[in-house]
């Protein structure tokens, strides 16, 4: 039977103590909800919290593949193409399709040039986007694979005016993650911002609005019976791209590698939210809901290296494709496989 989803539910716990700080939203605060819990045929609702949102976890999964100090992908992803945006005047690094919120649909990518050609025209041609012509999802998937395959995992939406992007193609996420806490209880505490210099405040001396004086504050953390990180790899969506088998295997391996790397590196989501995987008492590995183990990071890294080499013909420049942003008059340059292998 074909498996359409691979789902991992990974128990977490605070690294120290029993409290944690969940994600919060303006005018809402902590995202609380009632979660149904099934026990046999009985369903009860318990107080739950969203600890980390889907959109934030997508950013964290992408971040494990990027070396911010060197402004390039980590070694394990060497050989995968991506768009690198350079300044038109001095060719300094600006950003990339791996770090931009909209990835290939970023304004910095869209408004750049490649060998003097606007990237909107380059992408439209590679995607086969034309007026009065239906979009071709499989052609788009193959083109994205050659530009930045991680967009096939984390999505891209070419949502601008249809005159710019005929058909406005959209790639939804194929890997999703979030963290929830079950049966939660608030832990209230507080503190004070001290001022050892200015002992009195007022209109003439400046007050707390300017940062002076003693300012007491309160804070609310939480404890929970259970904290779980959930990850879903949509294998059916990956298969729907119609890519040759090795390329589909590469995308699935990339998703598993991101999940494993994120979990192994620890989940310090905020100052007061440092979580770690709860180790099984018998030493058994993390498995999906069907009992299939999540391979180790070393195993997944080796698998990626093999699959990247196998899919070389489908991976475009096999490294950064340099485009120029700002002015658009200078010529862009393509970096070949040799430069990418050297860690450019």
3D structure, described in words:
This protein has a 7-stranded antiparallel beta sheet with strand order 4-5-14-15-1-17-16. Residues about 330-344 have low confidence and may be disordered. With about 350 residues, the chain is an alpha+beta fold. Helix 7 (about 245-265) runs antiparallel to helix 8 (about 295-310). A hairpin with a 2-residue loop joins strand 16 and strand 17. It has helices spanning about 55-65, 105-110, 120-125, 135-145, 150-155, 235-240, 245-265, 295-310, 335-340, and strands spanning about 5-15, 25, 30, 30-40, 40-50, 65, 70-75, 80-85, 95, 115, 115-120, 155, 170, 175-195, 215-235, 265-270, 275, 320-325.
Key attributes of the depicted protein:
about 350 residues; alpha+beta; seven-stranded antiparallel β-sheet; 18 strands; about 25% helix; disordered C terminus
What is the number of helices? 9
> H/E element string?
EEEEEHEEEEHEEHHHEEEEHHEEHEH
Helix fraction by DSSP (H/I, runs of at least 4): 10-25%
The shape, in one word, is: globular
Largest sheet, in brief, is:
7 strands, antiparallel
**Oligomer state of the chains in this structure:** single chain
Determine the mean pLDDT: 88
Give the helix/strand class: alpha+beta
Strand composition percent: 25-35%
The tally of beta strands, per DSSP, is 18
Rg is: 24 Å
Uncertain residue segments: 328-344
- Please give the order of strands in the largest beta sheet: 4-5-14-15-1-17-16
Q: How far is it from the N-terminal to the C-terminal residue, by CA?
A: 43 Å
């Amino acid at each position: 039977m074909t498996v359409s989803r691979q789902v991992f539910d990974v128990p977490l716990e605070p690294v120290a103590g029993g409290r944690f700080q969940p994600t919060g939203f303006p005018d809402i605060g902590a995202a609380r909800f009632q979660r149904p819990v099934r026990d046999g045929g009985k369903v009860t609702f318990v107080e739950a919290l969203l600890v980390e949102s889907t959109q934030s976890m997508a950013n964290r999964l992408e971040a494990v593949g990027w070396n911010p100090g060197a402004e390039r992908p980590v070694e394990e992803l060497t050989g995968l193409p991506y768009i690198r945006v350079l300044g038109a005047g001095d060719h300094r690094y600006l950003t990339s399709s791996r770090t931009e919120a909209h990835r290939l649909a970023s304004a910095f990518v869209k408004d750049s040039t490649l060998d003097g050609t606007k990237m909107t025209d380059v992408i439209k041609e590679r995607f086969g986007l034309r007026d009065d012509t239906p979009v071709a999802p499989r052609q788009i998937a193959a083109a994205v694979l050659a530009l930045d395959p991680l967009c096939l995992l984390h999505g891209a939406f070419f949502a601008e005016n249809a005159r710019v992007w005929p058909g406005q193609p959209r790639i939804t996420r194929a890997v999703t993650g979030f963290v929830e806490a079950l049966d939660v209880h608030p832990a209230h505490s507080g503190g004070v911002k001290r001022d050892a210099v200015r002992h009195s405040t007022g209109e003439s001396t400046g007050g707390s609005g300017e940062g002076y004086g003693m300012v007491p504050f309160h804070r609310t953390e939480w404890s929970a019976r259970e904290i779980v990180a959930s990850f879903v790899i949509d294998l059916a969506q990956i298969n729907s791209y119609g890519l040759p088998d090795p390329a589909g295997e590469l995308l699935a391996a990339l998703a598993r590698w991101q999940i494993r790397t994120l979990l192994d590196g620890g989940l310090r989501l905020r100052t007061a939210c440092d979580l770690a995987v709860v180790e099984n008492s018998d030493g058994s590995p993390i498995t999906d809901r069907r009992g299939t183990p999540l391979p180790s990071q070393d195993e997944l890294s080796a698998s990626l290296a093999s699959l990247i080499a196998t899919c070389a013909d489908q991976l475009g420049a096999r490294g950064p494709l340099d485009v120029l942003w700002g002015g658009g008059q200078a010529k862009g340059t393509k970096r070949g496989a040799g430069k990418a292998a050297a860690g450019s």
